[in-house]
Amino acid sequence: MARKYRIAVLAGDGVGCEVVPEALKVLRAVEEVSSLNFEFINVDGGATYWLKTGRREEWPPEAYSICRESDAVLFGAVGIPGVCYPDGTSVGNKVIFGLRFGLDLYANVRPVKLYEGVPCPLVGRRPGDVDFVIVRENTEDLYVPIRGFLERGEARELAIDVRVVTRKGAERVIRYAFELCRRRRGAPIDGRRRVTCIDKSNVLRGCLFFRQVFNEVAGNYPDIERDYAYVDAFTQWIITKPERYDVCVTTNMFGDIVTDLTSVLQGGMGMAPSGEIGDGKAMFEPVHGTAPDIAGKGIANPIATILSAKMMLEWLGDKYGDSSAKIGASRIEEAVRRVLAEGRVRTPDLGGTSRTSEVGDAVASMVKQVA
Question: What DSSP string runs through 350-361?
């Protein structure tokens, strides 16, 4: 009997409310051509909800439990510019960090892949040249809530953020990167499986420790080449020779920064999916955030969210040994590939004039045509 997957859906704010429905549309198309069955549970949350409730709460009391008890979470984005707490903290952070830390989603997995028909700013780079994954540690570093201000005489004099790198946190995300590498085909330039450690170990003690743990874990994977890059040098190398990279692993803040850079190689934020993955729980979301400059215009690119849904099916397939989920993921990616290659339907960020819903319609229709 086919398994029914319970998916918590949190669209959030801004374009999240526009792109998530398109991913659901595509998942419904997968249902029509497979034995898969989904139950989508809509969950409120974010800055819009906070304003609606009279600035009292970011999500309903039952929201976290719904997400925890679901098979996976499909997330849009949260946050509205200027909607903040008195200390300047953005409203919406309690939702994203509540899920990230509460479900212990320690591996933030961000694939960077260039598809046919998508413009790349690097001269001469074609699909196949850009195909790597950045695995970002997701529960430590500067994002731990050890921070504060020193205020005297109504003047703010000092700000402190504490960086935390633990053996457990480093070890498990590095191991995840090596295991992921084993499932891939290697770097485009030479087919060699390699994991690159991105750090600043020539200056920072946390990075020195991260690299030490990297070397310890790498010793258990003699079939995979270990590689190193200081984060500042990496920002040069990734745009001069992206085809050399296969899987990269790094700390939380560095990963947050470099993945915004690398998204440009695949056509921009609208093409960048991600998964936040732990031991038994996972959440999938586009990298782009709420995009307030285009929110409400119906022109946001839903491909990142659709590919995040594809990642969700891959993860469910691995977790439950469900070949139907894996085939569904392949159908989605092939449908995206064909729609992009044809070039008739694309949003303005990719040089087209299509609306968000038109791209979702095109991909959903193509899912039903993929053999």
Answer: GT----HHHHHH
**Nearest CA to 280 among 88, 80, 102?**
102
Contact predicate 129/187, CB 8 Å: no
Asked whether the beta carbons of 329 and 297 are under 8 A apart, the reply is no
Instruction: List the beta strands (DSSP E) in the chain.
Output: 4-12, 37-42, 72-77, 107-113, 131-137, 147-152, 155-161, 194-199, 225-230, 247-250, 273-277, 282-286
Catalytic residue, chosen from 129, 228, 230, 260, is 260
Q: Which domains does the chain have, with CATH numbers?
A: 1-106+273-371 (3.40.718.10), 120-266 (3.40.718.10)
pTM score over 0.85: yes
Residue from 71, 141, 246, 256 carrying the catalytic annotation = 256
Residue 197, token pair as written in the block:
């450690």
Active site residue 94: no
CA-closest candidate to residue 178, choices 240, 119, 239, 220: 220
> Could you say which of 104, 161, 190, 232 is catalytic?
232
pLDDT (tens digit per residue) in 205-237: 999 999 999 999 999 999 999 999 999 999 999
What is the per-residue pLDDT across 189-204, written as a single tens digit (0 to 9) for each? 999 999 999 999 999 9
293 assigned to active site: no
Q: Is 199 a catalytic residue?
A: no
